[in-house]
Specification:
mainly alpha; three-stranded antiparallel beta sheet; 12 helices; globular
């Protein structure tokens, strides 16, 4: 069972048995049966992720597109699934990549780029995700027209109550802005690549390099942690991360101010350059 990004989840849902049922025939019982089938191959936390994405569809399907999907049937199904323990929220991840792991990833992606100049510039994307704290899908939606000095409009930012059309201006730290300025302006999007391609490249690299339990989204967690380590306040971090509620950032308040461990990172200058298969500069 494929799972991960929203695009991957929706693709899986489309090709499942649920995708073959008429909208008017989808009931709470149908959705419960679908979840029971999912739980044969995935964990309740992952099933919860599927239903989180489905929730968006059931919310807008009737008013926006005229499809007869019942939000009440969906809510009834979720009530049952929670009682049965078939869907569950995942615990907070605290996985942070080490500099050694990041160095190995950057070197790996550099070799690929040197051999295939047309491949995705994963070195820049990885570094940008870390320094900007942007999610994978947000990165692919950033447009040149939305760049405003040292901030950028982040489209469809994830938010519990307003996930579609939730466009927010977020500050770009200097390191992230430098990477943006190094990108060739060939399409409306700054990073004109698909989330599936980015996810596949990152997952494949981790597997090849033997880097365990590291996800692309962990780069956002690392970037936010870095800002707190630099002594940034919750409002200052929220201006970068895009959090509307500062409550979500309270999990980071235990982080003590120390230093910016990326201050002399050997890849800083390299990823801000316009070269292909960039090499690091020694500190």
């Amino acid at each position: 069972m494929v799972h991960g990004t929203k695009a991957q989840v929706l693709k899986t849902l489309k090709s499942s048995d649920l995708g073959d049922i008429k909208c008017s025939e989808i009931t709470s019982r149908t959705l419960v049966s679908f979840a029971q089938e999912l739980n044969k191959s995935i964990e309740p936390q992952t099933c919860g992720n599927y239903f989180s994405h489905l929730s968006n569809i059931f919310t807008v399907a009737r008013p926006a597109w005229g499809y007869p999907l019942s939000r009440q049937e969906f809510d009834d199904a979720v009530t049952v699934l929670k009682k049965l323990g078939l869907i569950r929220k995942g615990g907070e991840r605290n996985r942070r990549p080490t500099l050694e792991e990041l160095d190995r990833l950057m070197e790996h992606f550099g070799r690929i780029r040197e051999n295939r100049p047309s491949s995705i510039p994963m070195q820049k994307i990885v570094a940008f995700a870390l320094f900007s704290t942007r999610r994978q899908e947000e990165i692919t939606l950033l447009r040149w027209d939305d760049l405003d000095d040292d901030r950028v409009l982040v489209r469809d930012m994830k938010h519990p109550g307003d996930k579609i059309g939730n466009n927010v201006y977020c500050e770009l730290p200097p390191e992230a802005l430098a990477i943006v300025k190094s990108m060739p302006r060939v399409k409306p999007e700054i990073f004109p690549y698909s989330t599936d391609a980015i996810s596949a490249a990152f997952t494949r690299a981790c597997k090849i390099l033997g880097i365990e339990d590291l996800r692309f989204h962990d780069l956002r967690h690392e970037g936010i942690s870095r800002l707190f380590e630099m002594g940034r306040t919750i409002p200052q971090v929220a201006a970068v991360s895009g959090h509307r509620s500062w409550t979500s950032l309270k999990r980071y308040t235990h982080i003590r101010q120390s230093r910016d461990k990326y201050d002399n990172w050997k890849w800083n200058a390299a990823v801000a350059a316009g070269s292909v298969g960039v090499r690091p500069t020694e500190a």
